[in-house]
Write a structure and sequence with these properties.
Blueprint: H1 3-10, E1 19-21, E2 24-26, E3 33-37, E4 44-49, H2 53-68, H3 77-93, H4 95-106, H5 110-131, E5 138-139, E6 146-154, E7 157-161, H6 167-180, E8 184-188, H7 195-207, E9 214-216, H8 221-230, E10 236-240, H9 243-255, E11 260-264, E12 270-273, H10 280-292, E13 304-308, H11 312-324, H12 344-359, E14 363-366, E15 370-371, E16 379-380, E17 383-386, H13 393-396, E18 403-409, H14 412-419, E19 427-431, H15 435-444, E20 449-452, E21 471-472, E22 485-493
Helix pairs in contact: 1-4, 2-8, 3-5, 3-7, 4-5, 4-7, 5-6, 10-11
Length: 494
């Protein structure tokens, strides 16, 4: 990447963003807007439409009409494939523009954003485009006078609520398989960061996606998100975000049409380091990156570091050294390792967690406070707290910020007990040279993803899903397609 090109994109004014309904950009029905504040410097970047229930209802009606007349679902798989492939190409062609716009909106460091946002989104769309004409129905083993056939049909209208931390990447995890299978989609981006995802939707239309197949409504979750959840005309609801919101969406489904709800929720992921790790310096480096990239605003962040007692002091010292060498600052600078906290509210919440950790007996090994306040932006020093107990708030609650809690363990069973000692089960890791131990940890730690001698980096060929209060269903891989199809049986007497 070229810093001059990044700076040129940064200098561009950002126009107001409107809803996308039935292929047209429209204002909110009440005409209201929301200010979008950049976490880089705390200034207003632009505005988005402040959606109403009427706006969401209109978007859902548009999606339903598009599904009923089969303008997309009725196209041959090869035609849908061509459109999705062109969309992926357009995302790649606009990658720098999309990445910089997203960073101005949510504060992710640009070196990470360019890969994790447009790069990942294009790859995901292309993956499902390649897969869609390889999803076959089935013939059942029946008696000779019966033909049993199983069809895989699109579900209809999919409602997708997308978070602010990686809107393009996570948006593509939902959009890719949903559209590939012929569904219509209504998006509700986060009110805290929606610009790059909305721009990505425009590129879908440019690629040839028919009007009404993809709609997007911006606004507050309590208004347009609730309207989506309570709609009688949404067939499947997919969401990535907090457990509290996920619980409300399940309640909305029960109160409305009992729509299927798939949730990817919070995590408190354990990163377990044994004394026999193959490379403790590498483990320390990866541990720091596993929690501090994107300022800890990652659902699978390794926010709990469990370290075997024999190496605890030396290993923590190494992690602290690596952490203190990481540069926090302007997320649009290629020299920055850790960008901004998404909002002032999120920053204050992070700092409150640190205060609580100290009050409960934890010791701050590094960081702990707000920094770079003179910029007007929202920045926090990467923070490591040692002496964190299994009952501590920092163990039991998701921070979603650059705060790492460190806990000592003595033996394998102790590590498993600590790892499983929360309501979450999204991700985890173990560092060991003992093959048997590695397999036992993969088996015994209750997570959707378990890393061995690494943390992060799993690509789209494998599913991401949680257990416990980290959610249900899977994003990524061919398994994600199951959320967006209905199985229909044809039982034919010959």
């Amino acid at each position: 990447m070229d810093q001059n090109l990044i700076d040129a994109e940064r200098a561009k004014p950002v126009p107001p963003f409107l809803h996308l309904i039935d292929g047209t950009h429209v204002s909110a029905s009440g005409g209201a807007t929301m200010d979008i504040t950049s976490p880089i410097d705390g200034t207003v970047l632009t505005t988005t439409a402040r959606g109403t229930k009427a706006d969401m209802d209109a978007a859902i009606a548009s999606a339903r009409a598009a599904f009923v007349d089969r303008r997309w679902a009725g196209q041959p798989p090869a035609s849908r494939k061509r459109v999705l492939m062109k969309w992926a190409d357009l995302i790649e062609a606009h990658a720098l523009e999309l990445a910089v716009l997203g960073v101005r909106d949510n504060g992710t460091e640009i070196s990470m954003a360019i890969k994790a946002e447009p790069g990942s989104a294009a790859g995901t769309i292309r993956y499902y485009a390649e897969a869609l004409d390889k999803i076959y129905g089935e013939i059942a083993p029946t008696s000779s006078d019966i033909l049993g056939m199983i069809y895989k049909e699109p579900v209809g209208v999919v409602g997708a609520i997308i978070p602010w931390n990686f809107p393009m990447m996570i948006g593509a995890w939902k959009l890719g398989p949903a559209l590939a299978m012929g569904n219509s989609v209504v998006l509700k981006p986060s009110e805290k960061a929606s610009l790059s995802l909305m721009k990505m939707c425009d590129l879908a239309l440019e690629a040839g996606l028919p009007a009404g197949v993809l709609n997007a409504v911006t606004g507050e979750g309590a208004v347009v998100g609730e309207a989506m959840g309570l709609s009688m005309d949404v067939d499947v609801l997919v969401f990535t975000g907090s457990g509290g919101t996920g619980r409300r969406l399940m309640e909305y489904a029960a109160r409305s049409n009992m729509k299927r709800v798939y949730l990817e929720l919070g995590g408190k992921s354990p990163n377990i380091v044994f004394a026999d790790a193959p490379n403790l310096v590498e483990a320390a480096k990866v541990a720091a990156g596993g929690i501090f990239r994107n300022a800890g605003q990652v659902c699978v962040a390794g926010s709990r570091l469990l370290v075997e007692a024999a190496i605890h002091d030396d290993f923590v010292a190494e992690v602290v050294k690596i952490t203190e060498a990481m540069r926090v600052g302007d997320p649009l600078s290629l020299e920055t390792h850790i960008g901004a906290i998404n909002s002032d509210v999120q920053l204050r919440q992070n700092l409150s967690f640190v205060e609580t950790a100290v009050a409960e007996g934890g010791d701050i090994a590094t960081g702990g406070g707000r920094i770079l306040q003179d910029t007007g932006g929202y920045y926090m020093a990467p923070t490591i707290v040692t002496g964190v107990t299994s009952e501590a708030t920092l163990t039991q609650k998701e921070v979603f910020g650059p705060v790492l809690g460190v806990t000592i363990f003595d033996a394998d069973d102790d590590a498993v007990r600590l790892a499983n000692g929360t309501v979450y089960g999204l991700a985890g890791a173990v560092w060991t040279s003992n093959l048997s131990r590695a397999h036992r940890m993969v088996r015994d730690v209750h997570t959707g993803v378990m890393h061995v001698n690494t943390y992060g980096g799993a690509d789209g060929t494998v599913p991401l899903g949680g257990v416990g209060q980290s959610g249900n269903g899977s994003d990524k891989s061919l398994h994600a397609i199951d959320k967006y199809i209905n199985l229909k049986t044809a039982w034919i007497k010959l």
